Amino acid sequence: MRCMTTSDKPDNASDEPAEPTESAEAATGIAAQDWARASAEPQYRAAVVDLLGALAYGELAAFERLAEDAKLAPTLEDKAELAKMASAEFHHFERLRDRLTEIGEEPTAAMEPFVAALDGFHRQTAPSDWLEGLVKAYVGDSIASDFYREVAVRLDSDTRALVLAVLDDTGHAGFAVDRVRAAIDADPRVGGRLALWARRLMGEALSQSQRVVADRDALSTMLVGGVADGFDLAEVGRMFSRITEAHTKRMAALGLAA
User: Fold this and answer.
1) To 5 degrees, how large is the angle CA 95–CA 96–CA 101?
2) Helix axes 233-254, 189-215, angle to 10 degrees
3) pTM of this prediction?
4) Alpha-carbon distance 14 to 103, whole Å?
5) pLDDT per position as a tens digit, 112-141
6) E strand segments, 112-166
7) How distant, in Å, are the alpha carbons of 22, 29, 160 from that of 26?
8) Torsion angles phi and psi, residue 76, rounded to 5
């Protein structure tokens, strides 16, 4: 479900990502290995290919969506900002595509299993106007970023570095907060509509991420234990609680009720 990176923290926002329970510095097991060692385990390799494929298609979809959102931008300045962000998303896609090729995987084949789910999510959550598009990018897509950061702490050091790099900020958070807050200040009624929209995004995003993981055996094994040694079902529940808490903070940053 990864689509838009929104990890920066404007002065008026509390946009802290959910905190994983284990830091890279304290890593053990696969998380303490590099790709050359970790990829010797076939199931782990399959999980990483799935993960990179999902991220790559998410970044490509983000590029396409930003280009579409630019058409709704009310000013030339806004159009230019979105064009810059779209370029950053495409660069992230290229890094993931190149990494898949480097490890001997065909990028299109790695992305294909996730196309239907991600396209379906975007069809179900198509924004009706400029402000809904901004909220989707800032709130909805940040849920995906939090999810991937949680997974990243269980990855080998090489893959973890790449995943965290492509989750890096494209500048959208501060931009979205500024524009949405200004709109609410100008017309407080906008806040109620956008709050309902954000709640819908939260539900759809969590449901979609759970479906994707459930459909991919290697990814689900990584989350609940197995080759990723450490996650258990209780921890998965805590992980989603942390993601929900981060969502609440982002809603507050926008001036919306969770």
Assistant:
1) 100
2) 160
3) 0.82
4) 37
5) 999 988 898 888 888 889 999 899 888 877
6) none
7) 7, 10, 14
8) -65, -35
